[in-house]
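re: ur question from yesterday

yeah so i grabbed the chain u mentioned. its 235 aa long if i counted rite. heres the sequnce exactly as i have it in my notes:
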Amino acid sequence: MITMRHSLIILALLILAGCNNNNVKRDPAYAAVRPLAVEPQQRQDGAIFDVRNNIALFEDYRARRVGDILTVRLEEQTDAEKESETTVSKSNSNSINNPVLFGTTPQFDLPSQLPLASTKDNNLAFSLGSESDFEGEGESEQNNKLSGNISVSVVEVLPNGNMIIRGEKVITINQGNEYIRLAGMVSPRDIAADNSISSVRIADAQISYVGDGAPNDANVMGWLSRFFVSALMPF
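ran it thru and got these structure tokens back, copy pasting raw so excuse formatting
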């Protein structure tokens, strides 16, 4: 009896632990990086201008170094539509008459033709015909839209000035987490004055929007249902 009680307690704890699915699962591939360390410059005695404390009043702040932050405006919208129709028809017909041995022989008053089989139920003539038709039609339509903002960091500056960026945004709502991950390459010429860039200007963009927790689990089809809609189902 005590063993049964302990088993029930352990089972209840496992169920409660499984229900608590709010743990944030960060992806290290989208982790931010720290800026590169800069060696301190020696202060020149007698100099009025100090390059370490200069303020650029004539230019806007824009991401240009490793570790700088850049805001990405998510403006993704895709519309795809495909329609196909196929019709195939084929018909064949073949016939062979009853074969004979002789041709026309009027001088010998013989039958002009001597069929190999002349009885009613024994005839070597035959005919063959076949006909096949196929008609198929398919239509597919898909619409996607993603909007919002995400701040990412510069992880690498290429020799031509382009920058590799990546970042992750985690939003916890009620009993689930929403993850927005972005990576790609941007040109400094496409960065606006407010240090932001549109997602459509990112090259080799990798954008993902996924979630976990109870709301996400409720939208997942069970394994038995997936079997009935898979190619393994013969009917």
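noticed a couple things. The first strand starts at residue 69 and ends at 96. also The radius of gyration is 39 Å.
anyway ttyl
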